[in-house]
């Protein structure tokens, strides 16, 4: 028998493990590639201050073909609730944790001194929570953000330190849409950052176009490696200042000449036709809505254009969303992408009822803006909609941004993609902003952390996975006896089944608790507190428990949000200079008082 050389035996012995190692290596790489192929891309789009019926799928006259197409390819939630203020809603959206437990009990600009010494009242995202971006990045996703952050502007608080691989972020509550400047005098400058470093905006900047340009750039930068991506696009639209390119404004000139009362009714009619609200839905008339017919013609003309610019800004946002969708289709990524579209809160109502008044003109001019009719909404123009048109924007709901009425809390939510089996359907069950992160994690096959992440303890998520609804397995994810509590700035609510208790402070609210069935009566027209005293008491006790468990602090009796924003803004801009000025004025007053007393002697 022929003898096999010893060297050949040794070579074979060495080759076998190497062969097995390479085999397992390639199998492992194939498994990783297969997992990446199965994990969908996720695009989370957040509008700013968008009202419940501001887009066509929910009853708007504003043409939004991109969002309409997503609604047809997905599921519309008609009973989805967020916070009534931007930073608290963003904190819950990105973490699945109640805003009082994540450091963002209110926007930092509105927190009174009596609350500001508490950790949960800093107005910035705490280190005790982890963002959906961090969790997805840890699971192999590329993570991108382009837009408004408003969860902290110190270096360690920026999105580049909170799980986002590439970022272009505006850190403030708002900013101009045409150039890099602040929109109100509580900021020294518009704080924009790129990957954690201060940046300068391009000369041809318009916010909605720029944010989609950057999103496409980020996605393309890693497209060839085959890894999935998570793209967060929080628009500035339609936060004040309300601005839009002329070609979009022109589409809505004349549309609002019939006024806000007619628009509010028209949107209710359309929402009923679409099934967004149930038959029999009624509306209340807000005390802040003026009589359109009593206005002089020149004022009607001006108000109609203010709203035309608003419509143009919504349409421009939709157009640029369409550009992103078309890019994903052209690059073969659309079919493996889930889209989530919603708003951070209801319609903004800070716009002055009459911009022609002297105080409004002085304010606008002090910021380097004009408010002339001819250039309204263009570069250098400050525009907003009035409280009257804000009520139409939220139709048929009551109240608006900052308040806990449905107009402040209930906003559109569209989830679209291949994972949605019941495409084109409407879901009327209660859903909440804290549900978004658990839903995205479930879709991506990423497990939510159990009490710890990155070597530190973190708050547990309270939101629910909406995937059973998206797959068509169930109609609701909250049981009839489960509750969701809410409080921001002293305005409060608690949801349980189809019911809601709510308390709104002044100047628009009455500071009393009310009970509504928000499924049959989303307009909050019939208070059921007296008819259902037992349910009312059960829900009030549940709210008290929510307050205790989440460290909700009472606002000062004389708390006024707008006033507090002004005081905090002066402190932010002038710092010690303001304190020196106040001390100097106090000393001067003391000298005057003492001088008068000496003279009298």
Q: In words, what does this structure look like?
A:
- By secondary structure, this protein is an alpha/beta fold.
- The protein is 36% helix and 13% strand.
- It has 2 domains: 514 residues, 3-Layer(aba) Sandwich (Alkaline Phosphatase, subunit A); 37 residues.
- The chain contains 16 helices and 18 strands.
- The strands form 4 sheets. The chain has a 10-stranded mixed beta sheet with strand order 7-6-5-4-8-1-9-10-2-11, with helices on both faces.
Which helices and strands, and how do they pair?
Layout lengths: L5 H33 L2 E7 L17 H8 L1 E4 L2 E2 L4 H10 L36 H7 L3 E7 L17 E5 L21 E3 L2 E2 L8 H15 L7 E6 L11 H5 L9 H15 L22 H34 L6 E7 L14 H9 L20 H7 L12 H4 L3 E4 L8 E3 L3 E2 L3 H9 L7 E2 L2 E2 L9 H4 L12 E6 L2 E6 L2 E5 L9 E5 L15 H18 L10 H14 L1 H25 L1
Parallel strand pairs: 1-8, 1-9, 2-11, 3-12, 4-5, 4-8
Antiparallel strand pairs: 2-10, 5-6, 6-7, 9-10, 13-14, 15-16, 16-17, 17-18
Helix pairs in contact: 5-8, 7-10
């Amino acid at each position: 028998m022929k003898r096999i050389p010893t060297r050949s035996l040794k070579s074979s012995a060495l080759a076998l493990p190497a062969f097995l190692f390479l085999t397992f290596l390639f199998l492992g790489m194939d498994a990783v590639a297969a997992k990446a192929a199965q994990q969908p891309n996720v695009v989370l789009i957040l509008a700013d201050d968008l009202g419940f019926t501001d887009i066509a799928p929910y009853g708007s006259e504003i043409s939004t073909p991109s969002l309409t197409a997503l609604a047809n390819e997905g599921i519309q939630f008609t009973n989805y609730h967020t916070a009534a203020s931007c930073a608290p809603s963003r904190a819950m959206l990105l973490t699945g944790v109640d805003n009082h437990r994540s450091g963002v009990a209110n926007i930092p600009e509105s927190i009174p001194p009596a609350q500001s010494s508490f950790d949960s009242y800093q107005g910035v995202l705490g280190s005790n929570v982890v963002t959906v971006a961090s969790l997805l990045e840890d699971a192999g996703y590329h993570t991108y953000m382009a837009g408004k952050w408003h969860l902290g502007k110190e270096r360690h608080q920026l999105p580049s330190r909170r799980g986002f691989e590439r970022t272009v972020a505006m850190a403030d509550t708002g900013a101009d849409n045409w150039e890099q400047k602040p929109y109100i005098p509580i900021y020294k400058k518009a704080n924009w950052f790129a990957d954690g470093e201060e940046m300068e905006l391009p000369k041809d900047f318009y916010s909605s176009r720029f944010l989609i340009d950057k999103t496409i750039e980020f996605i393309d930068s890693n497209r060839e490696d085959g890894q999935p991506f998570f793209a967060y696009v929080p628009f500035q639209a339609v936060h004040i200042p309300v601005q839009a390119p002329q070609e979009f404004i022109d589409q809505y000139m004349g549309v609002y000449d019939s006024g806000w009362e007619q628009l509010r009714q028209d949107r209710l009619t359309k929402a009923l036709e679409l099934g967004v609200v149930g038959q029999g839905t009624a509306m209340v008339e807000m005390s802040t809505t003026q009589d359109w017919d009593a206005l002089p013609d020149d004022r009607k003309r001006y108000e109609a254009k203010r709203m035309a610019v608003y419509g143009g800004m919504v349409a421009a946002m939709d157009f640029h969303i369409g550009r992103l969708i078309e890019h994903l289709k052209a690059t073969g990524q659309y079919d493996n992408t889930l889209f989530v579209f919603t708003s951070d809160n209801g319609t903004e109502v800070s716009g002055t009822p009459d911009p022609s008044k002297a105080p409004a003109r002085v304010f606008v001019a002090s910021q380097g803006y004009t408010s002339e009719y001819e250039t309204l909404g263009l570069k250098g123009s400050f525009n907003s909609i009035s409280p009257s048109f804000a009520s139409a924007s939220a139709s048929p709901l009551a109240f608006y941004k900052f308040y806990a009425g449905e107009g402040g809390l209930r906003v559109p939510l569209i989830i679209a993609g291949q994972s949605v089996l019941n495409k084109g359907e409407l879901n009327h069950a209660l859903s909440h902003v804290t549900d978004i992160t658990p839903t995205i994690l479930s879709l991506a096959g990423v497990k939510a952390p159990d009490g710890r992440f990155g070597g530190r303890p973190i708050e547990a998520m309270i939101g629910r996975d909406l995937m059973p609804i998206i797959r068509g397995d169930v109609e609701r994810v909250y049981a009839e006896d489960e509750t969701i509590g809410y409080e921001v700035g002293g305005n409060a609510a608690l949801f349980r089944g189809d019911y809601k208790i709510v308390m709104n402070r002044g100047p628009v609210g009455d500071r009393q608790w009310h009970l509504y069935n928000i499924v049959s009566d989303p307009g909050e027209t019939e208070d059921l507190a007296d008819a259902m005293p037992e349910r009312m008491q059960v829900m009030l006790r549940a709210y008290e428990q929510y307050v205790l468990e989440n460290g909700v602090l009472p606002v000062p009796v004389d708390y006024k949000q707008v006033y507090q924003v002004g005081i905090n803004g002066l402190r932010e801009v002038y710092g010690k200079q303001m304190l020196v000025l106040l001390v100097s004025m106090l000393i001067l007053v003391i000298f005057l008082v003492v001088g008068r007393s000496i003279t009298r002697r």
